[in-house]
Amino acid sequence: IFLIALVLSLAQVFTPTAARECLNIPNKAFEFDQTEDTFDTSVDSFQGCRRACLENKECAAFTWDSEASISCFMFTKIREYYTCTACQSGLKPSQMMPQNHGCAVHLSDVLATTEAESVDDCLAQCDEMDGPCQFVTYHNETSEFNNFCFLLQECKTMEPCYSCESWQLNCLPAPDECSNYRILDDATRSIIHGSKGYCDRSGNDSPDWQGPGWYRMMSPAGIKMPQNTPGQSHCGTAVVGWLNGEHPTNQFQTSTNVRVCFDWDDDDCHGETTANITNCGQFYVYQLPDTPYCYLRYCSYDPDDLKMDEEEEKTSGENLL
């Protein structure tokens, strides 16, 4: 009882965010191989499909398609995937061995403790937690920790436990560009900055430009490219670059050949090029070429900065009344 109270007092509370693709991967389906993979016609929900995969020794991944006549597909290995509108997929977690053992509970590894109806429920809570949760230990109804779930960031050692089981999440790897990128953070790149003679072209003096490649936009420049032109003579240049297209909405999705326009001389697309954009969950990265000529530069902005400006304008107007 003392251990339960101590763990509960130290456990942290995390807000669920979508930052990885493990048990719940929206809008992606794995390619089905009729010679190796199977399906289950008795399942009537995504959660049911996930549980069926968890209980199937041969299952490595699953896809639930709510619009298909057969909705639950189970795969013997992780296959190539494609995007879809009415489907969800997931990777089966790995059970920690040996059997009848669980992860030893070190308080420094405990992220949270919760009640859970099943090991599937326990794993789902770990998956919803942003970032560090990688392991769970679930105690069933015969345990001293009745239907109790430990959410762990590490599993350093195993110990005998005859009424519990431990699992590790498996996740799709993030694209390389989500960790291997350069940074655009020069403050003059922001759409709230005026004109200056900078150019995103090799051999010129734009402070943060390092030639063609993958870039992440960061403060104080902003965090993303604008999808509307801010007007010429902003962003520390004369001819401003803006995204004439959409950012990818799904995590780890890459949009290719997205049109980038440059605003000049009363023409919001006086010049243009293309960029590839990857959604890395918490941020976007852009594969940008040298601009076609000078003085052209890619703009950046932070939506929160614009909200602050709007609030300041509203407050100033109220003060004048």
Radius of gyration: 25 Å
What is the rounded distance between the termini?
62 Å
Q: Could you say which overall geometry the principal axes of the C-alpha atoms support?
A: elongated
Helix-residue proportion:
10-25%
Strand segment tally: 19
Strand fraction equals 25-35%
Number of helices, counting only DSSP H or I runs of 4 residues or more: 4
Uncertain regions: pLDDT < 50 for 5+ in a row? 1-18, 308-321
**Strand neighbour order, sheet with most strands:** 13-14-18-17-16-15-19
Order of helices and strands: HEEHEEEEEEHEEEEEEEEEEEH
Largest pleated sheet: 7 strands, mixed
**What value does the average pLDDT take?**
87
Write a brief structural summary:
This protein has 321 residues and is an alpha+beta fold. The chain contains four helices and 19 strands.
Kindly describe this structure.
This protein has 321 residues and is of the alpha+beta class. Helices cover 15% and strands 32% of the residues. It has a seven-stranded mixed sheet, with no helix packed on it. A hairpin with a 4-residue loop joins strand 17 and strand 18 (284-288). It is elongated, with a radius of gyration of 25 Å.
Characteristics of this structure?
4 helices; 7-stranded mixed beta sheet; about 325 residues; elongated; alpha+beta; single chain
Task: Set out the fold topology.
Layout: H1 2-10, E1 25-30, E2 38-40, H2 46-55, E3 61-65, E4 72-75, E5 81-91, E6 94-95, E7 101-103, E8 110-115, H3 119-128, E9 135-139, E10 148-152, E11 158-160, E12 164-168, E13 182-184, E14 213-217, E15 239-243, E16 254-264, E17 267-279, E18 284-288, E19 296-298, H4 303-320
